[in-house]
Design a protein that fits this description.
Elements (H helix, E strand, L loop, with lengths): L10 E2 L1 H5 L6 E5 L2 E3 L6 E2 L1 H14 L9 H6 L1
Antiparallel strand pairs: 1-2, 2-3, 3-4
């Protein structure tokens, strides 16, 4: 089994993920995450905060909303 020192956190790039391009992973280097495709640079806390913003996009995905409920929103 690998030691905890050798394990890296694999995180998706939040910018690409928000654009529905879910193929790239952020590379972790010296506690900074960066994306090769879009050039995003940030710390883990920034990535997690952006994940929460993306999660809001799918808030109602599991609930069916009727037309009347939509008009009342």
């Amino acid at each position: 089994m690998a030691s905890a020192d050798k394990l890296k956190k694999i995180m998706r790039c939040p910018v690409c993920f928000g654009r529905d391009i879910d193929v790239l992973m952020c590379h972790d280097e010296n506690a900074k995450h960066y994306c090769i495709k879009c050039g995003f640079n940030g710390e883990e806390s920034e990535v997690r905060a952006m994940y929460l913003d993306i999660k809001k996009k799918f808030h109602w995905i599991s609930k069916r909303i009727t037309l009347e409920e939509q008009l009342n929103l």
